[in-house]
From TrEMBL:
The lineage of its organism: Eukaryota, Metazoa, Ecdysozoa, Nematoda, Chromadorea. Residues 47-194 form the SET domain. This is SET domain-containing protein. Gene3D superfamilies: SET domain (2.170.270.10). It comes from the Eukaryota. SMART domains: SET.
Length: 226
């Protein structure tokens, strides 16, 4: 049994678009008994998490009372799988600001991956059809966990990585939050909500970091946490 080379997570790379992983299961030759599964640590819930709110401008956030080392998969971003047409602006879905997009139509890495599998021609065609015209989201509004309360930061201390288990369909995607830097006790857990949210929310970010908004093509300073 072989595996890929380790991914070295850094806070300067956007790993979501560059990498994806696989987790062994009972369908593998190891029957899910090997250690080749990035889901093992999140499932063990090793890090105590507390919910907090620092001021009335910001919603609830989450933090840990212990050190989370860089490169550690901490938890899954759990939610209901929602398939929406590409033009989300014309839908009646009210939870778009809370959901996280896990697929996108021009996902060349995923398309190449499907081509390289040993799946049957019919199944490959089915997978390509599933991803061809629909973007899929994880909506944590009703079915979720504490990951949905991770705050936004333009210099986030966690990144999200797609992990497939058992198959490559949208139903088999796990969205895992991985620390990209050492997160010290009491530090808010943050992720980057992405450019789509930046466009919708415009100047409402409150993370206190400097970043470049692609839709404005300018550098701005976010307001500070106060």
């Amino acid at each position: 049994m072989t595996s890929f080379e380790p991914i070295h997570f850094t806070s300067t790379d956007i790993h979501f678009y560059q990498h994806m992983g696989f987790a062994c299961s009972e369908l593998c030759g190891c029957e899910g008994k090997c250690t080749n599964s990035v889901l093992m640590i999140p499932n063990k819930r090793l890090f105590p998490i507390e919910m907090f709110r620092s001021n009335e401008k910001l919603g609830f956030g989450v933090r840990s009372s212990v050190l989370i080392p860089a490169g550690t998969p901490v938890t899954e971003f759990v939610g209901e799988i929602i398939g929406e047409q590409i033009d989300i602006e014309n839908t009646n879905w009210n939870n778009i600001e809370y959901a996280y997009q896990v697929t996108y139509v021009k996902d060349d890495v995923l398309k190449q991956l499907v081509d390289q599998t040993n799946f049957s021609k019919n199944y490959k065609g089915l997978l390509k059809d599933l991803y061809a015209n629909i973007s899929y989201y994880l909506d944590p509004t009703v079915c979720g966990n504490y990951a949905r309360m991770a705050s936004h930061s333009c210099a986030a201390n966690m990144d999200l990585v797609r992990i497939f288990q058992k198959s490559l369909s949208p139903a088999h995607i796990h969205l895992v939050m991985v620390a990209v830097t050492d997160i010290f006790p009491g530090t808010p857990i943050t992720i980057d909500y992405g450019n789509d949210n930046a466009t919708r929310l415009k100047n409402k970010f409150e993370c206190g970091t400097q970043h470049i908004l692609n839709f404005q093509d300018t550098t701005k300073n976010c307001p500070t946490w106060n």
